[in-house]
Structures are given as C-alpha cells and as structure tokens.
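B., you asked whether I could sanity-check this one before it goes into the benchmark set. Here's the sequence:
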Amino acid sequence: MNLAQHIDFTLLRPDCTPEHIRQLCDLAQQHRFASVCIPPYFVKQAAEILAEGPVKISAAVGFPMGYSATPAKVEEIKKALDEGAEEIDAVLNICAVKSANWNYVRNDIDSMTTAVRLKGKSISITIEAGLLTEAELAKVCELALEIKPNFIKTSTGFNSEGATVQLIQQLTQLLGGKIRIKASGGIRTAEDAGRLMEAGATRVGITDLLA
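And here's what the prediction gave me:
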C-alpha cells in the first residue's frame, strides 16, 4: 500500500502564514500526498502553488467548533470551491447533536453536502466522535447514510480524542462500507496511520511537520 496517497497533510493552526502554506504544499507535492487540508483563507494561494498537480486542496469549513449557522457554512463552502478547493472538510454542529435536534443535524449534513455536490466535488463531515455517546454516534451515522457525503471524518483534532483503531472499526460497522472514513487526530507516525487504515480508514489526517 502506498500510504502517501491516503494522507491529508494538515495545517490548521490559527497562526499559520503564507510561508507555512507554501512549505506544506511543497512537501505534499514532494511526497505526492492525497491532499493538503488548510484554512479557507489560504485556498487561493494553495491553488496557485498546486496548479495541475496531483495534490488536492481540502478546505476546513466551520472549523473547529461546527456551530456556525448552516447557511454561513454553506457560503463558506461555496467561496472555498470557487477559489480552488476540490474537497471540503466541514464540521458538524455538535451542539445540535447534543440537543438531540435531529432535524437540524440532518439539514446541516444535507445542506453542506448538497452545496459540494452541485460543484461535483468531495465532502467530509467531521463528527467529533470522541464527544459523542454511542447512541449519538449511531444516529449521526444513520443520518449520514441517508445523505451519503463522501467521507465521515473522526475529529478536528482540537476538541476531542483523536482517531483510534476501536473507533474506526466501530464506524466501519455503522457505515457498512457505504461511506468512506477519514481518521484524524493524534496520528503521529506511519505505524499509527497503517493501523488505522487496516481497521477501515481510507484517508488519514497527518498534522503538519512545520511546528
């Protein structure tokens, strides 16, 4: 397995600079990673650096809390796609999940997924699995299976426990292979990434090496 082709090379620190983004993109090109995951603010710059190359640009939307109003996240998605993003990593409204407002949660997933689908691009819904009860996790996966975003992503890495083998196995069972899984949070080594891939993840988010 070529692990590099499954890596989302991630830089989402609030103090990152254009030079950090350039270094991130250069390293991603050098190793031929699947994507760079960056703040929407830097999408236009990354699109210029990565033009015509194999590395995709993934914009983090609603990051890191996810509780922005759904229409605001949809507008953020549209702008990121217009500026060159090919993938969107959108954070689910966990407050709505914790409130058991399932109509809102469904609309949140559906609205963001539809905005990306209309542009023919790919979306990951970040669910902060470490903050959810087993019942909440099952319900979120049930709603996702109705709407079918391209990926479910385990966490932002900022608000909860990161990906574990047990969590990936649980998500694999809940999603039944119908939605791909991105493992994110706390992944530090190739061995970590390999174990998560073996458990069922199809992408792994690796934090930037520029710190």
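One thing to flag: Helices lie at 18-31, 43-49, 70-82, 94-98, 102-117, 134-147, 165-175, 190-199. Otherwise nothing jumped out at me.
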